[in-house]
Amino acid sequence: MLTSKRTISSTNKQKLVDLVVDAHCNIMVAPEQFVHVAFSDGVPIANKNELYIQATVRVGREKNQVIRLKQALQDSAAKILQVRENRIYVNLLEIQSNWVMEGGHVMPAPGEEDEWMERVTKALAAEKKAE
């Protein structure tokens, strides 16, 4: 969830979506379909921040991955919005993978995505065949 003080242009929203997806996929090595981005514009934010980014990551990531993701989001969002880095607040929350469902299937732990994709693809194919 990206919450901003001001309305963000459609162009900059797309740049921010691309940033979040690219950073999450490249740094956390997660499939693109696991990344979802939502915006809330025109919301008062404390401490003179311009943008508040709250994202969840599955428990089991290396500490340096989490730090790199936070830094990438903060630095690049500041460039996109043309504000100082210290005006971008990033809050990453770690969650258990089994607390989340994607496409009706419990999410895999980090590193188990390939097996999960194969299993889910087979399940979806079987469902379609049964229809």
Number of helices: 3
Order of neighbouring strands in the sheet with most strands: 2-1-3-4
Q: Quick check: average pLDDT?
A: 92
Tell me what portion of residues adopts beta-strand conformation: 15-25%
The rounded Rg comes to 17 Å
User: How many structural domains can be distinguished in the coordinates?
Assistant: 1
**CATH topology value:** Macrophage Migration Inhibitory Factor
Instruction: Indicate the multimeric state.
Output: single chain
User: How would you classify the helix and strand content by structural class?
Assistant: alpha/beta
**Shape, principal axes of CA atoms:** elongated
CATH domain class = Alpha Beta
Distance between the termini: 36 Å
Contiguous low-pLDDT stretches (5 residues minimum) are: none
Portion in helices: 40-55%
Would you kindly provide a written description of the structure presented here, covering whatever features stand out?
- This protein has 3 helices and 6 strands; from the N terminus they run E-H-E-E-H-E-E-E-H.
- Strands 2-1-3-4 form a 4-stranded mixed beta sheet, covered by helices on one side.
- The protein has helices spanning 10-28, 63-81, 113-130, and strands at residues 2-4, 39-40, 51-58, 88-95, 101-102, 105-106.
- The chain is elongated.
- It has one domain: Macrophage Migration Inhibitory Factor (2-Layer Sandwich), CATH 3.30.429.
- It is α/β, with parallel strands linked by helices and 131 residues long.
- The model has no long low-confidence stretch (mean pLDDT 92).
